[in-house]
C-alpha cells in the first residue's frame, strides 16, 4: 500500500446547535480533516442535518457520517440525502455506511435485529444502489433480494466526481471483506466482544490481512481508518489507562497496546501513529469530541504528513 498522508477526524455528539458549530469551527482551525456525525437513537442530532449545520460555518472541513445504520433508511433515501448534503456543503461529504450493530437502537425503535448475514446482504444491496445513484446522471434501476428501485431519478448531482467517497466499517471477516471490495475508506472496528464466554477476537493484524486479501488490486486505493477510543495525554494518562483496564478486564499493557489507545504523551502518540502507518497502513484516525482540544497538538504535528 502506498503511504497515505495522515488525516484526523472528531466525532462530536450533541443536541446543541451552538456547541456543534463551535466544535466545527475549532476542528477546522486545529487542522482536523473531518467532523463526524454518528447514527444512534440517543441524545444527539440526526446525522444528516447536523452535517449541513456544521458545513454552514466552515469552508474546508469535510463532513462524514460514521456510520449510517443501513436498517434505519431505504437506500434510495440515503442516496438522495447524500447527494443533497454534498451539494449543500460544496462537495465535502464522506458517506459512511454500516450494517448496524448496537442492539439497543433496535430495541428502542422496534426494528428487528436480524442475523449478521441478513444485515450484511442488505448493506451490500444498499451500497450498489447508492453508488449507482451517486455516480450516474441516468435513472437507476435495481432488483435484489431486499431492495428494488425502478427508474430512480438521480437528482441532485453531487459536487464530488465521480461521487463522494464511501466508507464501510466492520470487525469480522464478512463485513471487512465487503468494505475492502466496495469502499474508498475501510474502518476497522476495535469493538470486539470481551469477557467470559466471548469468542476469541481476531488480532488487528488479522483484520488488516482480511482487508488486503479481499481488496486485491484495490488495496493501494483504500484508506484505512480506526477510532482512537482512548486519548490520554499528560499526568492523568496513567489513571485513564487504569480505568480502561478495570472497565475492559484487560491489563494496562494490553489497553496501551491497542491501536486505538493514544497515550501517554504527544511524542509517544506521534511515534505510535507513524509506526502503525508503516506496519498496517493506517492513516486516518478519529477521536471522540471530548478529546477535540487534547488531541489537537498531535493533529498539528501530523496532519497531512
3D structure, described in words:
The protein has 305 residues and is an alpha/beta fold. It has one domain (7-302): Luciferase-like domain (TIM Barrel, Alpha-Beta Barrel). 41% of the residues lie in helices and 18% in strands. The protein is built from eleven helices and 13 strands. β2, α2 and β3 form a beta-alpha-beta unit. The two termini are 16 Å apart. The mean pLDDT is 95.
Jot down its keywords:
about 20% strand, eight-stranded parallel β-barrel, TIM Barrel, 11 helices, two-stranded antiparallel ribbon, about 300 residues, alpha/beta
Question: Rg to the nearest angstrom?
Answer: 19 Å
Distance from first to last alpha carbon: 16 Å
Large-scale geometry: globular
Q: What fraction of residues sit in β-strands?
A: 15-25%
SS-derived structural category: alpha/beta
Q: Strand count, sense and closure of the main sheet?
A: 8 strands, parallel, barrel
The CATH superfamily is known as Luciferase-like domain
Number of separate domains: 1
Number of helices: 11
Q: What is the arithmetic mean of pLDDT?
A: 95
Helix and strand topology:
Elements: E1 7-11, H1 17-30, E2 34-37, H2 47-55, E3 62-65, E4 68-69, H3 75-88, E5 93-98, H4 103-109, H5 116-135, E6 140-143, E7 148-152, E8 166-170, H6 173-182, E9 185-188, H7 204-215, E10 223-228, E11 230-231, H8 237-248, H9 252-257, E12 261-262, H10 266-280, E13 282-288, H11 296-302
Helix pairs in contact: 1-2, 2-3, 3-5, 5-6, 6-7, 10-11
Question: Can I get a quick summary?
Answer:
The protein is α/β, with parallel strands linked by helices and 305 residues long. It contains 11 helices and 13 strands.
Amino acid at each position: 500500500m502506498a503511504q497515505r498522508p495522515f488525516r484526523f477526524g472528531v466525532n462530536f455528539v450533541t443536541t446543541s446547535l451552538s456547541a456543534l458549530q463551535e466544535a466545527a469551527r475549532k476542528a477546522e482551525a486545529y487542522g482536523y480533516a473531518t467532523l463526524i456525525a454518528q447514527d444512534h437513537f440517543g441524545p444527539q442530532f440526526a446525522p444528516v442535518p447536523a452535517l449541513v449545520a456544521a458545513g454552514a460555518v466552515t469552508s474546508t472541513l469535510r463532513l462524514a457520517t460514521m456510520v449510517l445504520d443501513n436498517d434505519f433508511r431505504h437506500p434510495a433515501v440515503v442516496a438522495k440525502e447524500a447527494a443533497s448534503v454534498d451539494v449543500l456543503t460544496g462537495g465535502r461529504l464522506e458517506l459512511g455506511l454500516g450494517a448496524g450493530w448496537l442492539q439497543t437502537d433496535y430495541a428502542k425503535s422496534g426494528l428487528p435485529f436480524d442475523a449478521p448475514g441478513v444485515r450484511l446482504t442488505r448493506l451490500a444491496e444498499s451500497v450498489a444502489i447508492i453508488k449507482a445513484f451517486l455516480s450516474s446522471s441516468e435513472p437507476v434501476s435495481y432488483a435484489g433480494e431486499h431492495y428494488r428501485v425502478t427508474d430512480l431519478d438521480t437528482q441532485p448531482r453531487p459536487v464530488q466526481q465521480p461521487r463522494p467517497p464511501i466508507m464501510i466499517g466492520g470487525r469480522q471477516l464478512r463485513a471487512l471483506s465487503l468494505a475492502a471490495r466496495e469502499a474508498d475508506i475501510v474502518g476497522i472496528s476495535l469493538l470486539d466482544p470481551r469477557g467470559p464466554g466471548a469468542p476469541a477476537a481476531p488480532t488487528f493484524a488479522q483484520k488488516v490481512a482480511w482487508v488486503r486479501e479481499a481488496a486485491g488490486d484495490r488495496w493501494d486505493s483504500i484508506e484505512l481508518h480506526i477510532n482512537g477510543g482512548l486519548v490520554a495525554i499528560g499526568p492523568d494518562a496513567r489513571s485513564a489507562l487504569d480505568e480502561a483496564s478495570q472497565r475492559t478486564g484487560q491489563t494496562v499493557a494490553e489497553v496501551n497496546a491497542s491501536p486505538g489507545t493514544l497515550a501517554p504523551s504527544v511524542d509517544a502518540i506521534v511515534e505510535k501513529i507513524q509506526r502503525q502507518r508503516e506496519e498496517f497502513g493506517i492513516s486516518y484516525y478519529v477521536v471522540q469530541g471530548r478529546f477535540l482540544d487534547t488531541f489537537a497538538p498531535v493533529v498539528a504535528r501530523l496532519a497531512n504528513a
